[in-house]
């Protein structure tokens, strides 16, 4: 699959970074069925009710699943200033080993449509690595679902498995503005047949998806691991990470949790390849 290409979208990204107005655990709650017309209907309970800002929505707080706040008391995780002085983030080091049982985090699995949202920052060698920000494995350690940062190709990838167990990857290519030491917000909206990527509240691209198979819940879920060696953790800073089960409510109006940046790297624009 092809990611977004060419200069216009890259230029749009930097313009919108200058003008932020471009965009801005209980166990039971709500499951959704998806009609042919894309309507979402409450069907049965599979998602937790979580608090996001002043709203209560169906979803999962991934940071809470991995007990990062408790890990700071043990010293394995440090708290740092987040994307603004008003935000707190967690600094995960290379010695971190965040791996939990999938069934404990998602007792009834994920709905067919969901949105993955995170605010994070890479630093040092992590920028150039190929690593899984979030990954579901089956009980044999095989990847079932993952959000991946590929610093080798400057791309973001959504990896998933079809009902007949074929591995598929949606690749959003050439995102140089994402691979730096700034705070970024990523929103991946997974719907029936499509996946859309927003970076810092700016729409980047949409791609077609093959049907996604049900994930095996007897495996493990990980954060911050190398793609080719999930035993090795990568250092990065994490302010928030969650899954929305209601994709219609996952879009923020603006990026108030990201500090405004007063300049852009024109080098990235002038050297955009003709794809």
From TrEMBL:
Top-level taxon: Eukaryota
SMART domains assigned: TSPN (SM00210)
Subcellular location: Secreted, Extracellular space, Extracellular matrix
Keywords, ordered alphabetically: Collagen, Disulfide bond, Extracellular matrix, Hydroxylation, Repeat, Secreted, Signal
SUPFAM superfamilies membership: Concanavalin A-like lectins/glucanases
GO cellular component term, pick one: collagen trimer
GO biological process, one term: animal organ morphogenesis
Coiled coil (residue ranges): none
Domain Thrombospondin-like N-terminal: 53-247
Residues that span the membrane, as ranges: none
Gene3D superfamilies in the record: 2.60.120.200
Signal sequence bounds: 1-24
UniProt KW Repeat keyword: yes
Primary location class: secreted
Family to which the UniProt record says this protein belongs: Belongs to the fibril-associated collagens with interrupted helices (FACIT) family.
Main function: Structural component of hyaline cartilage and vitreous of the eye.
Subunit-level organization: Heterotrimer of an alpha 1(IX), an alpha 2(IX) and an alpha 3(IX) chain.
Protein name: Collagen alpha-1(IX) chain
Native organism taxonomy: Eukaryota, Metazoa, Chordata, Craniata, Vertebrata
């Amino acid at each position: 699959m092809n990611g977004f290409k060419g200069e216009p979208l890259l230029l749009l990204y930097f313009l919108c970074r200058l003008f932020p107005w471009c965009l801005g655990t209980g166990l039971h709650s709500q499951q959704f069925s998806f009609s042919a017309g894309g309507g979402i209907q409450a069907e049965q309970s599979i998602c937790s009710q979580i608090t996001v800002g002043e709203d209560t929505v169906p979803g999962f707080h991934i940071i809470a699943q991995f007990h990062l706040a408790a890990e700071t008391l043990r010293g394995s995780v440090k708290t740092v200033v987040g994307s603004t002085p008003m935000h707190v983030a967690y600094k995960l080091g290379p010695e971190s080993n965040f791996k939990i049982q999938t069934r404990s985090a998602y007792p009834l699995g994920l709905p067919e449509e969901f949105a993955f949202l995170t605010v994070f920052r890479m630093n040092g060698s992590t920028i150039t690595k190929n690593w899984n920000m979030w990954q579901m494995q089956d009980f044999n350690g095989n990847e079932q679902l993952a959000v991946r940062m590929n610093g080798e190709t400057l791309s973001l990838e959504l990896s998933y498995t079809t009902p007949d167990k074929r591995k598929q990857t949606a690749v959003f290519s050439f995102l140089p503005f994402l691979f730096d030491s700034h705070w970024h917000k990523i929103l991946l909206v997974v719907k029936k047949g499509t996946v859309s990527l927003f970076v810092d509240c700016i729409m980047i691209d949409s791609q077609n998806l093959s049907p996604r198979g049900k994930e095996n819940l007897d495996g493990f879920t990980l954060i911050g691991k190398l793609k080719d060696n999930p035993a090795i953790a990568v250092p990065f800073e994490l302010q928030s990470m969650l899954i929305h089960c209601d994709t219609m409510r996952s879009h923020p109006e603006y990026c108030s949790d990201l500090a405004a940046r007063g300049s852009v790297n024109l080098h990235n624009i002038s050297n955009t390849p003709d794809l």
